[in-house]
Amino acid sequence: MLRYTAVSKQDQIRQQVIQLIEQLAVGDAIPSERKLSSDLRVSRLTLRAALDELVREGYLVRRHGSGTFVGEPKIAQQLTLTSFSDDMRRRGMIPDSRTISLENVHAGPQVARALNISPDARVFRIGRLRLADGLPMAVETLHVPVSLVPGLTAAQLEHSSFYALLEERYYVVIASGLQTIEPTVTNEEESRLLDVPLHSPAFLFERTSTTTGGETVEFVRSIYRGDRYRLVAELSHRREPTMSALSAVDGG
């Protein structure tokens, strides 16, 4: 038996506002709440709830004392092993990177576990700001063993892809990686670098990458702006093995 779920008034208004947004350009102001509530024949309370949701999702941006404006479209982040630079270029955007810091430090327990090295081993701890079309997208803290990239300088990382540098200068090719993702909010330093309000929604990415030989190359912790990203995963149905297939396996 089919079941039909009623669409709430707030959802209806949300869709109508999205249709309005699609006719406007990024940075354009939408009509005032008073005008919208009149045009859409809905209460200010219902309209405000719908607009609040669209602000949280990044469709709209509120500016105190100025109004509500169309936000930048979110970038769909595919959950695959690719460099930030390559990903942005595929989307027709110009990637860039600014080196915030580069330190030669002891790995310490957490980084040592991630890189499978001694806590006393030396690593480069690199802070970078990742940009697309000149806009800040992510703050990245990268750890890589000094022995793997001797002589690495901040200038080499400026405006370049770390993966490309690894391959072209150090002949190290990334083959696989393990990445975790969780929601978070930005702290003061991250908010300043990303040009967002304090405690803005964000994604925390942590990744380790290895070569074909199984050597762990990097441990990266990245904070991505929640208002500019949405995560996309391609899913497939995995069939359970049939009895005949099981028998064939058991028969070895």
Outline:
By secondary structure, the chain is of the alpha+beta class. The protein contains nine helices and ten strands. It has a six-stranded antiparallel β-sheet. Strands 1-2 form a two-stranded antiparallel ribbon.
What do these coordinates show?
This protein is α+β, with helices and mostly antiparallel strands and about 250 residues long. It folds into two domains: about 10-70, Winged helix-like DNA-binding domain superfamily/Winged helix DNA-binding domain (Arc Repressor Mutant, subunit A, Orthogonal Bundle); about 75-230, Chorismate lyase (3-Layer(aba) Sandwich), CATH 3.40.1410.10. Helices cover about 30% and strands about 30% of the residues. The chain is built from nine helices and ten strands. It has helices at about 10-20, 35-40, 45-55, 85-90, 110-115, 155, 160-170, 190-195, 245-250; strands spanning about 60-65, 65-70, 75-80, 95-105, 120-130, 135-145, 175-185, 200-210, 215-225, 230. The strands form three sheets. Strands 4-5-6-9-8-7 form a six-stranded antiparallel sheet. Strands 1-2 form a two-stranded antiparallel ribbon. The longest helix is centred in the N-terminal third of the chain and has 14 residues, at about 10-20. It is elongated, with a radius of gyration of 23 Å. The two termini are about 45 Å apart. The model is unreliable at about 1-5 and about 240-250 (pLDDT under 50).
